[in-house]
Amino acid sequence: MNQHLYILTGASRGMGLAMAQQLLKPSHSLLCISRQASPELAAAAATAGASLLQWTHDLADAQGIGTRLRDWLQNQNPAHLASATLINNAGVIPPVVPLRQSQPADLAQALRVGLEAPMVLSAVFLGATQTWALPRKLLNISSGLGRYPMASQAAYCAAKAGMDHFTRCLALDEALHPHGARVCSLAPGVIDTDMQVQLRGSASETFPDQSKFAQLKANGQLSSPEQAAEQVLRFLARADFGQAPVADVRG
Fold this sequence. Notes:
- The protein is globular, with a radius of gyration of 18 Å.
- The protein has helices spanning 14-23, 39-48, 62-74, 104-128, 154-175, 194-200, 210-218, 225-236, and strands at 3-9, 28-34, 51-56, 81-88, 136-141, 182-187, 246-248.
- It starts with a strand and ends with a strand.
- The chain is 43% helix and 17% strand.
- By secondary structure, it is of the alpha/beta class.
- It has one domain: Rossmann fold (3-Layer(aba) Sandwich).
- It has a 7-stranded parallel beta sheet with strand order 3-2-1-4-5-6-7, sandwiched between helices.
């Protein structure tokens, strides 16, 4: 039986880990790329009888992981695959302060992980698989903050806005090819993850919207990572996936 190949970044915690767990099926082959491997995920794969490969790599080194992924993909046999999908999920929020107080290293890390790495991995994935005559999808996990500005969030907002726009460009590129990939930059809603903890734990003096995020938690308005992962994967499986290059699970 040919397997469905999934490549997922940021799979060691939060929604990424939940997506990885839900993708562990005998008919799937899953490659996860994160700073740390997940023993929990490895155990779940063994129980499910699923194919799992975990690479530990800091996505701030986009060139390094791009080269590694290209070499790996070129050694895969598409005749053994039913489909291939890349999910760029990894991202980081630098310290929540106005841009004037931000450190260059923090800004560079946020943009490398949140924008450079997805662009590099997308280029590698699409280039290495362009002759594969099978369905290919590319899902970029974006954010509402890529579409709406917020004080003390310049780097994260910029990375997600850049992700949205390069996905629009990719959609135009791929539409020119008979076997072009379907691509989408998807906002997954507001999720109770470590990023939310960081936002609502920030000082209100430097983050004017701190109280809004605290209220989201207090009012039970956050999706769990498992709920969000289920919504995202359901969107990925839709027949019209890629029809809109930028979308939101909330419609």
